[in-house]
Amino acid sequence: MTPEALAASAAFGLLGGTLAGLFGIGGGAILVPFLYALMDGSWSGIALPAGASSVVAHATSVAVILPASLSALWGYQRTGGVPWPIVLRMGAAAALFAALASRLAPELPEAALRGGFTLFLVAAGLRMLLDRRSAASRAAEGERRGDALLLVGGAAAGALSSLLGVGGGMLAIPFLVYGVRIDVRSLAAASMGVVSAAALAGALGYGLARPSVPLPEGTVGYIFLPAALALAPGAVIGARIGVRLNRRLDADRLRRLFAMLLLLVAARLAWGVIATL
């Protein structure tokens, strides 16, 4: 990797980690588009076989999300805010389906992976932007903790996490809010627990995989370690910063700003997908 790529990785790792800790997501919405640019651009010094850049980007993102999410989870645990009964049940399902999805992703066409990620950003951005209710009012009806409900939500979040290289928090959060009706004070902490479980299983699945095409030196399975190691320190530090900000800032206003960012990133990625057709 070039010095420019290393510097950019440190900055985007910090940004992705901060957003992960702040919103209870995995940070993949920021990390994956950056990794697309890193894997595709000659400026980074990375050369990948045709059709391999998307799965490598998703796998590397999951590997970075793991230490970032664990850092954020530890930060929330220190404040006593992790609802472990919910996290353990959802996390078990998330881990299982993340492992399964990590085996499926390399078999999918690159356009399908990028197109699916773009649609994910659009759906997440629109949902966050159009939801006018406050975070507190969404949880006002009381929690529901049925095992079947938690397992379904965890399975969906885990599968999405590995396939698209995100943490799964974008799916876990609306499920926790509208399905489980979790106390808003525990929302980000619960999401980070699910994200951590999914990222652990997904990273193991991608790391133990045997690629069908030769990948650059330093790649473990489908995880490009030089990029993961460059992103991870900033992501871990940023996650702790995000946890602190979560306790201080207006989450609803930040949610809308983040939604607009997701839609802008989705528009840019959609243009790239269309240009390749």
From TrEMBL:
Annotated TM spans: 55-76, 82-100, 112-130, 150-180, 187-208, 220-242, 254-274
Superkingdom: Bacteria
Keyword Cell cycle part of the UniProt annotation: no
Cell compartment(s), UniProt: Cell membrane; Membrane
Family, similarity comment: Belongs to the 4-toluene sulfonate uptake permease (TSUP) (TC 2.A.102) family.
Membrane topology: Multi-pass membrane protein
Name listed for the protein in its UniProt record: Probable membrane transporter protein
Species classification: Bacteria, Pseudomonadati, Gemmatimonadota, Longimicrobiia, Gaopeijiales
Keywords: Cell membrane, Membrane, Transmembrane, Transmembrane helix
Entries under InterPro entries matching the protein: TM_pro_TauE-like (IPR002781)
Pfam families: TauE
Main localization, broad class: membrane
Native species: Gaopeijia maritima
